[in-house]
Design goal:
This is Phenylacetic acid degradation protein PaaY. This protein is mainly beta. Helix content is 12%, strand content 33%. It has a single domain, classed as UDP N-Acetylglucosamine Acyltransferase, domain 1 (3 Solenoid).
Length: 197
């Protein structure tokens, strides 16, 4: 990872978290246990604090930032899809934020809610737990079922396992010039970290 201290504040990454080498962490960034930070994610704690709580993931090209003295927080087991932007907001426990969604300052997304792909959540928005939030500007469309929440939780567990796979097995390499004969698929190589069933 590319990691910068700013004004004496050094990013914190728990040893069980995986942060891709192309991700950028600046200043007041705190990444908890079993988190995953994807390629080209930018977590800028140069004004406010950036927090990923235990088991959260933030995927490729996501941005986390905030105004001075703000906290931008992804709660435990939060799941932030590719290209999302979080600015000075609080994402509750077990929330899914879809690809290319934007969640603005002071917004609070209730636990176990979904923010749909490409949604624009205005500053100061809030919603109850287990809500489906959609649109631009976003609004609550309906409650989520327990089955929908369970589907999300299964996906988040896969990212927690991915963090461990990456810590154990990902290494920089040179590409091959051509495809090997009978090239295996990634599933053929096992998707569980060493020591897990």
């Amino acid at each position: 990872m590319t990691c910068y201290s700013l004004n004496g504040l050094i990013p914190v990454v728990h040893p069980s978290a995986y942060v891709h080498p192309s991700a950028v962490l600046i200043g007041d960034v705190i990444i908890g246990p079993n988190c995953y930070v994807g390629p080209l994610a930018s977590l800028r704690g140069d004004f406010g604090r950036i927090v990923l709580e235990e088991g959260a993931n933030i995927q490729d090209t996501c941005v986390m930032h905030g105004f001075p003295d703000s906290d931008t927080v992804v709660g435990c087991n939060g799941h932030i899809g590719h290209g999302a932007v979080l600015h000075g907001c609080r994402i509750g426990e077990d929330v899914l934020v879809g690809m290319n969604a934007v969640v603005m300052d002071g917004a609070e997304i209730g636990a176990r809610s979904f923010v749909s792909a490409t949604a624009f959540v205005k500053a100061g928005f809030s919603c109850a737990e287990q809500s489906l939030v959609m649109g631009a500007p976003a609004s609550v469309k309906r409650p989520l079922s327990d089955q929908e929440v369970a589907w999300k939780q299964a996906g988040t567990r896969e990212y927690q396992l991915l963090a461990q796979r990456c810590l154990q097995d990902m290494v920089a390499c040179q590409p091959l010039a051509e495809v090997e004969e009978q090239r295996p698929r990634i599933a053929d190589r096992g998707l569980r970290p060493k020591g897990q069933v």
